[in-house]
Every structure is written in C-alpha cells, then in structure tokens.
Design brief:
Blueprint (H helix, E strand, L loop, with lengths): L1 E4 L5 E3 L38 H12 L12 H4 L7 E2 L4 H11 L3 E5 L5 E6 H14 L1 H7 L12 E4 L5 H11 L3 E5 L5 E6 H10 L8
Parallel strand pairs: 3-4
Antiparallel strand pairs: 1-2, 1-6, 4-5, 7-8
C-alpha cells in the first residue's frame, strides 16, 4: 500500500504519476532557528535507474515458471534500513548540510515534532537551495545558514508499508523517478527507509529474480 504525506503530516491515497509531476518549490527565506541537537540520518548509496526493458524481461521470465518453482517475494521489511533516522523540520540549513557533507547521506526523512513524516530532504535539494541563495547574494547565503529546512525539503512524500513487496516499490521508483521511500506502519510510525541501492543489492545477492514476478 502506498500513501502520500504532506507537510502537515496528513496522508492521502497515492495516484500514479502524482509524485513524478510535482513541482519543485522555489526556495524561500525563513526565520533563523536554534541549532538542534544532533540527529541521525538515513544512509543511502547512489543507485542506478531501472529500465522498462529490464522490468518486462524479468516479469516475462518469471511468468514462464510454475508457481511451485517460485520463491516467496521479498518484502520491504526484510531489506529496509531500520531504525530510520531523521531530521526535524525545524533543523537549520547548515545543520542539514553538515550531515550530508560529512556523512555522505543522500536522503533524509523529515518529521514533525509529533514524529510524523512531513517531508524528505536530499543532497540535490541542498545543492539547488545553495545555488539559489548564492545567485541572490553572499548575504542571502549567510542568512540561509540559519534558515529552517521546511522551506527546502520536498513535500508530498510517497511512503509504503513494511509489508509491501519490493517488486511493487521498484516499479514506483522507476515510474515516479524517485530514489528512496520511507516505510510507515499501520500506527503511522516511521519505521524504516528503502532505497534503489537496497533493491539493487538484493537483486545481486538474491538472484534468480523471483522477487520481481
């Protein structure tokens, strides 16, 4: 099951194409915030894009096998990174940059004070914001160091449940052009995160490809 979370921590049903077609918000200035306590962040390694040909081929190969020959599909909870580590939406721009730069993080789930998923921040979001601030002036860049990330993070975050099969998540990664997906349980608790790299690693280590069929 897939749902979409907004910056208010409110979920809505997922509609195919909604994430791919979302518009990137223009960076806006925000009021300075106090530097938060250190928070953990998800570590995600850069992956490669799936191609429609690969998906079609693996599906076709699997469909030719009898049900007896197929192995059980792999679920997100089996390969997800957990416990998931996050940034608060009040974290400063400079704090987020420090984590991404020093720890080489790619995707960071962002949560509300109540712990609900409200956004996701990537290294690309930070690069884009830096360029926009610098294009204004050095003074704007200096002021931005203390701005909160709620004006930079991506909202409308697509999530899945830990029981979702990774073949379904892989298809969504491909069609929505995203590289990471937070995993939220039935109690609306953020319990893990799955990336394209996690799926690729599983494909390499768990071949043959019954996980796709």
């Amino acid at each position: 099951m897939f749902v979409v979370w907004n910056e208010g921590g409110i979920k809505a049903p997922y509609v195919s194409g909604a994430i791919r077609n979302r518009k990137v918000r223009k960076v806006a200035k925000s009021h300075p915030v106090q530097r938060p306590e250190p928070h953990h962040v998800d570590l995600a390694i850069q992956g490669r894009e799936f191609t429609s040909g690969h998906i079609a081929d693996t599906y076709r190969q699997g469909s030719e096998k009898s049900p007896v020959d197929r192995k059980p599909a792999i679920l997100a909870r089996q390969i997800m990174t957990s416990p998931v580590v996050t940034l608060p939406m009040t974290a400063s721009f400079s704090h987020a940059w420090d984590l991404v730069k020093n720890k080489r993080f790619r995707h960071v789930p962002v949560v509300s004070p109540e712990g609900k998923l409200v956004g996701i921040l990537s290294d690309r979001d930070l690069f884009r914001a830096t360029i926009e601030f610098l294009s204004e002036s050095q003074e704007a860049m200096t002021e931005a160091q203390h701005a909160s990330i709620d004006h930079i993070m991506v909202v409308q975050v697509l999530s899945a449940t830990p029981e979702t099969e990774i073949r379904a998540i892989a298809r969504v990664f491909f069609y929505e052009r995203i590289g990471a997906m937070p995993l939220v349980n039935d109690r609306e608790e953020l319990v893990g995160i799955l990336t394209r790299s996690d799926i690729l690693r599983t494909v390499v280590n768990e071949a043959p490809f019954e996980l796709w069929v």
